[in-house]
Amino acid sequence: MTQGNPLEVVVAGIKLVHPVMNASGFLGYTKEHIRRLASYGFSAIVTKTITPYPKKGYEPPIIIALPNGGLLNAVGLENPGKNCINDLVEESKKFGVPIIISAGGSTEEEFMNVAIEAELRGASAVELNLSCPHAKGYGIEIGADPQKVFSVVKNVSSVIKIPVIAKLGLSDKILDSAGKALEGGAKALTLINTVKAMTIDVYTLKPILSNIFGGLSGPPIHPIAVRVIYEVYKEYKTDIIGCGGVASWEDAAEFIAAGAKAIQVGTAIAFHNNPSELVKSMLKGLRTWLYMHKFKSIDEAVGAAQKV
């Protein structure tokens, strides 16, 4: 921690000036997206999930805003393929912000392919998307199987030197999957991804999303994420990046108290008129919160709710 900056953290070996980064999602696969995310004040930029080759997404409708403040989306991991990584890394370097490449794949070889490209182009880390709930063969089918998690993480970790972060979603084997990810070489865990859900139009009697199922994000999943972070930190005491419904400093602080060392913000960016002000308010709130509890750093606050 730098003298005078209680918010500085080191996650998966990456030094961050504060714990708030963006979540992999709708932004992060063009240079313009990188510029926008950097302008919001995030301490690191996480790209949209990138696959080895261009991937077409689902037909609209693919995103629905829900009355409860959540979002339901089934974009289908649409992205231009790994050839975009060089431009994304180069753009992030202009702002001096670490960039984490979210890697997707339907096989171990595909994950390795993207990870190797990320390291070659100078990325700070790779976040393995092992938990997308709506892209068949690309996500939750892997993350819900601890042995598959171990195999993917181990193989990716064996071919790159930059840190590997495993992003896991909700499943009844989340604790086992987390343990296997760490055993395979993950330096941190991102918890959690969106939760598989659906919504039906009661007038047409048809599912609204073209893919039928989508990923639920935003405030509705926040308490679920708190519970998962709490349990995983209690079991493994590892670096955790909390993700799921963070829309205020209180949400961020709750994740930290549960066991997270850093935070990702996703849905709140889409709903907020001024994301840079959102980030500023979170950082101001976290500083006050640390002072209130006499914590000298974020590190001292991590897992505080488990020490009470």
UniProtKB/TrEMBL annotation:
Annotated Gene Ontology cellular component terms: cytoplasm
Enzyme Commission (EC) number: 1.3.-.-
Superkingdom to which the source organism belongs: Archaea
Catalytic activity reported: (S)-dihydroorotate + A = orotate + AH2
Pathway: Pyrimidine metabolism; UMP biosynthesis via de novo pathway
Residues covered by the Dihydroorotate dehydrogenase catalytic domain: 7-275
Residues at which FMN binds: S24, K48, T49, N129, K167, I192, G218, G244, G245, G266, T267
Binding site for substrate: K48, N73, A74, V75, G76, L77, N129, N193, T194
InterPro entries linked: Aldolase_TIM, DHO_dehydrogenase, DHOD_1B, DHODH_Type1, Dihydroorotate_DH_1, Dihydroorotate_DH_1_2, Dihydroorotate_DH_cat, Dihydroorotate_DH_CS
Keywords: Cytoplasm, Flavoprotein, FMN, Oxidoreductase, Pyrimidine biosynthesis
CDD domains reported for this sequence: DHOD_1B_like
GO annotation (BP), single: 'de novo' UMP biosynthetic process
Cofactor details (free text): Binds 1 FMN per subunit.
GO terms assigned for molecular function: dihydroorotate dehydrogenase activity
Pfam family of the protein (one): DHO_dh
Cofactor(s) of this protein: FMN
Active site feature: C132
Main location: cytoplasm
Gene3D superfamilies, per database record: Aldolase class I (3.20.20.70)
Cytoplasm recorded as keyword: yes
Similarity remark: Belongs to the dihydroorotate dehydrogenase family. Type 1 subfamily.
Summary of the function given for this chain in its UniProt record: Catalyzes the conversion of dihydroorotate to orotate.
HAMAP family: DHO_dh_type1
Protein name: Dihydroorotate dehydrogenase
